[in-house]
Design brief:
Layout (H helix, E strand, L loop, with lengths): L6 H5 L3 H10 L1 H22 L7 H25 L1
Helix pairs in contact: 2-3, 3-4
InterPro entries: DUF465_sf
Protein name: DUF465 domain-containing protein
Length: about 80
């Protein structure tokens, strides 16, 4: 069963801090929205039975999710 990644644990930032910074940073806000969207796409692709989503498509979605996570991390560190 597909499970969503805990972004806040991966980033080592408390949810409250990220949400506070999100309100002050439009770029961070956009990146977090993109992350949620792509994470939902990964979960949906993983949940679909074999044959509907190719392994290549799933791999690209996961790469995109990871890329966005790194951008979020850089944006958070920019404000430290």
């Amino acid at each position: 069963m597909p499970v969503s990644h805990d972004l806040y644990q991966d980033l080592h930032y408390p949810r409250e801090i990220v949400q506070q910074r999100r309100q002050q940073d439009q770029t961070l806000d956009r990146l977090l929205d993109e992350y949620v969207d792509i994470d939902n796409q990964v979960l949906a692709a993983e949940a679909i039975s074999a044959g509907y989503t190719s392994d290549d498509d799933l791999h690209r979605l996961k790469e995109r999710r990871l890329s966005i996570k790194y951008m979020i991390d850089r944006q958070l560190k920019r404000e430290d």
